[in-house]
Amino acid sequence: KGNALYFDGKDDYVEIYGQDLPVPQAVSGLRTGAISLWFRVDSIPRLHGIAPLFYYGGEEQCDFFDGANQGLILEVGHSPVHKRSERLYFTIFANGCTYPSFCFDSNQSIFKGRWYHLVVVVGEDYNTGYLDGVEMENRNYNFGGPGDSQFFDNALLHERLWLGRGHWDRTTQYLKGAIDELKIFYRPLSEDMVQALYLEGLEATPVEGPDAAEGSLTLWPNPADGVLKYETGQPAGTILSTVQVIDMNGKVVHTQSELPPSGSLDLSHLTAGLYQISFSGEQGLLSGKTILLR
User: Fold this and answer.
1) Using a CB cutoff of 8 Å and minimum separation of 24, what contacts does 191-200 make?
2) N or C: fewer beta carbons within 10 Å in the chain?
C-alpha cells in the first residue's frame, strides 16, 4: 500500500501478461466481475487525446478516430469526440474497429492531482461504477445501458493488458499520473464490498511532490458522525495555517485557521457524504485525504 506506480506521460507503462500467454488466462475469460484501482491524473488532454488508466485488447491500433481497441479501456478525457471532457470513461469495443459496443462516463469532471478510488462492476444483467466508495448514480451512457453485461470475455482480441498506455485516434497515448492497488475480481462486488475496499485504501493515498510537508496525517473515525479527530505528526507547538474541507464538486465548504498539530474538527453542520480534507502549514501541504460523513 502506498507504493504507487508513477507515469511520466511520455513513454511509461506497465504490461501484465500470463505465463507463455499474451494476457493472464484468468482475466481473458471473465464474463462478470469487477476492476478496482486507485488513480491520480496529473494531466488531462483537453484538445486531443486521453489519459489511459487500464487498457485491454489489441496490440495494434485500429484505423479509426476513436480508441476501438477491440477490448476494454478505463480512461480520463475523450477529446475531441467529447470536446474538452475531463470525465472518467469505461468503454468496451466488442464490434471490432468501429464505435464502442458499450460506454458510460462519470458525468462529472475528474480533478487533476487528486487521488480517486474507482470500481467498475459487471453482473449477469447489469453494470455500475463507484467513485470514492459512492455509486455513480448519475453516470452517463454513451453506448448501451445499465442492463448490459459486457466484460473481458467480450473482447475480440486478448493481446495486451496495459496500465498507463492506450490507443486513441490512431495514436498511442500515455498517462501522466499514478496508479495503485489494482485488483481484478472474478465476481461482482456488492456496495458493502466496494465501501470496504475504499476505506481500506484511504491510507494508500500519500501526498507526493515538492509541496508535501513532513509528517503523517491520521483522521478518525472514518466514517465520522460529525466530529473528526486528526493527528498530523507535526512537532508540538507547530501551528497549522489552514484546513480546508472540500466536497465532491470541488467546493470549499469549511475552513479553519491556526490549528494545533492534533485536535478535532466539528463538521456536524455538513451534510452526509464524501469530503476531501487538506491541511497546510509553515512546511507546505501536509496531506489531502477523503473522509465519509454520515
Assistant:
1) 191/130, 191/135, 194/36, 194/119, 194/121, 194/130, 194/133, 195/133, 197/36, 197/117, 197/119, 197/133, 198/117, 198/119, 198/130, 198/132, 198/133, 199/133, 199/292
2) C
What tens digit of pLDDT does each residue of 233-291 get? Answer: 777 777 776 888 887 666 788 989 888 888 999 999 998 877 888 777 655 556 556 67
State how beta strands 72-79 and 49-57 pair: antiparallel
Non-local CB neighbours of 173 within 8 Å, separated by 6+ positions = 45, 49, 50, 51, 52, 165, 166, 167
C-alpha cell at 279: 491541511
What is residue 198's three-state secondary structure?
helix
Which residue carries 475504499 as its cell?
198
Cis? peptide before 223, omega within 30° of 0? yes
Contact 50/67 with Cβ under 8 angstroms?
yes
Q: What is the pLDDT of residue 233?
A: 77
pLDDT given at position 209: 37
